[in-house]
Amino acid sequence: MRALFLPTILLAAVMFVAAPWLIDGAPTESTMGFVQKIFYFHVPSWMVMFSAVFLCGIAGAIHLFKRSAAADRVAAASAEIAAVFGIIGLITGPLWARKAWGVWWQWDARLTSALILELILIAYLLLRRYGGPGSEKLASGVALFGMANVPFVYWSVNVWRTVHPKTTVVPSLGPGMRGTFWWCSLAFVLLGGALLAARLRIERLRARVDELYLER
Amino acid sequence: MRAFVGIAWLVMRKDLTVEVRSREIVYTTLFFAVSCVLVFAFSFVRDGRALDHAAAGILWIAIAFAGTLALGRAFERERQSETLRALLLAPVDRPAIYVGKLLGLLALLAGVELILVPVVGLLFQAPLLAHPYLLAALLAAGTIGFASVGTLFAAMLVRSRSRDVLLPVVLYPITVPVIIAGVRGTAALFQAEADTPMAVAWITMLAAFDAVFLTLALWTFDPVMTE
Amino acid sequence: MNAESFSADFQILRFEDVSRHFGRRRALAHVSLDCRAGEIVGLLGPNGAGKSTLLAIAAALMTPSAGSVRYGTMTAREGGAALRARIGLLAHDLHLYPELTARENLEFFARLYLLPDARRRAEAALARAGLAARAEEVVSSFSRGQRQRLALERALVHDPRLVLLDEPFTGLDDEASRTLVARLGALREAGAVVLLATHDIETVEGLVDRVAVLREGRLAALEAGPGALRERYRRLM
Q1: Ranges of each domain in chain C
Q2: C38-60+81-236, CATH topology level
Q3: C20, C24, C216: which to substitute to probe chain A, counting the most A Cβ within 10 Å?
Q4: The whole model's pTM is what?
Q5: Chains touching chain C at 3 or more Cβ pairs under 8 angstroms?
Q6: Which residues in chain C have Cβ-Cβ distances shorter than 8 Å to A210?
Q7: Is residue A27 part of a domain?
Q8: What is the pLDDT of residues A54-74, one digit of tens each?
Q9: How many domains would you assign to chain A?
């Protein structure tokens, strides 16, 4: 596994370097023009974030019910990855909104739901950090609840928003855009995976240090 | 099953007995809730008129804040003589303890809301009696949702450091759907032309939320409480 | 207290290489210990040695980080709720509700342990604690010694097989101490497994059958008492 790390991150780096050219070359979307191109980074970062959230929830559940320390490490690492990619999404979103509709924040259903999910993740990380010993189990409970919450958050924010005029328009992928989109998605997934592996390694080393400490 | 219900009832009765003797939590929570409402009223009332739908929002914020306070206090009490541990030692299904504490808290919050809702109705001229059953159903479903998640989290944080600040930190993001549903549903009912189908939709969502999260809480209570 | 209530119970409590840590703090390290029925084992050690942690693990409130605990042949997980019915714990925090009366506390715990004759048991327990006169008073008005006596009865109201006591002599005057010693003797006769933690050896001299000494989470010594306990303990510390 460790042998894959370097090639993965190199590949991701290469793909990210190539991305601007591809994005520039992709057909410009008719309604939003050039601004729409931020979509190629915005959506993939959310994809990685949601995958990491589900990984965190499932790993948390395994830790809670099977008392697996390895699962807990996966949960901790994926929560941080999710939080980071979530912030990328939360920054690119308003940037897009500002240029497309003139305001930074529009209480868009998707963006708001994502913000709430990000808050749950940060709450998870705060609990792990400040809850004292034994908080890993509690955090797993929070992760599980957070994951179960995703459909409710999305539904309630969506219905809340439909009372107001619809301002969100997510462009459907034109033929020329698809290739670029998948290129960027793959780049993000590789980056996310590599970062997760690195973070996991840190967790494993930390567990080993704790063990050594205890054996004194 | 009978033992489960019996124990939940026993724990709830004990909680209510303790509360009735001291009345500490119910008085302080009620006072806090009403103060909350007033503070928000100062922000949202201008020229003697409240902003549209301010009443619904203020009511649910007051319930959320007061609920968090009550949760914290209720479990702080259990912490003092470590009586929560004594409950966990009992030869019963541990989720029964959870249900008992939840019922006790719901009784407390119901009492607070019984006074809070008329106060809000009075201050904001909200039509409480237009659809009383729907309003009651909305309040019940929302409070159950909030309390079921809150009871689990408060119980699990009982031995944590920084538990006072961590409870709202973990509870509020997860109960956002409850707040949204409660506020929008109440606002729909308080409108001049009450939007009852909308209110019913929100009540249905809350019922689904309650079912999912109660089940999750019953499922995770034992593993989370075993150190 | 009759011998029948202990029938069909486990004969031995076994700690197998039990370790427990909280973050980076080691509370117990590789503790192996057997406690048999009809025996009182004293758990000695300074504060912070890990006695309370060991008792919590024995009470199935906590799981060890490593190693296992067996009740007869069962683990805590296999025993589940039925096992908990056979365990009585008197912890340092007394587990009494200060806002409830003495009788209400006892009846609550009797019902919690699913005892059919809760009222009668509470009555008997109050008499044994010498608190029948104060039965209707709230526990917050009790002295430490009275609370200790009540807490002891609360811990024993369901005739447990495994009796775990953490500093049970705290706050007791001489007469109450003698009563407690007699009570523990009776428990031993009836075939209970008694594990008693204390840092005060004087009170348990002559009472315990064996002594396990904990220091910094490790089992420093395991010896048969009684007699000259004080000297041996002092030498170890």
Answers
A1: 38-60+81-236
A2: Rossmann fold (3.40.50)
A3: C24
A4: 0.89
A5: A, B
A6: 23-24
A7: no
A8: 999 999 999 999 888 899 999
A9: 1
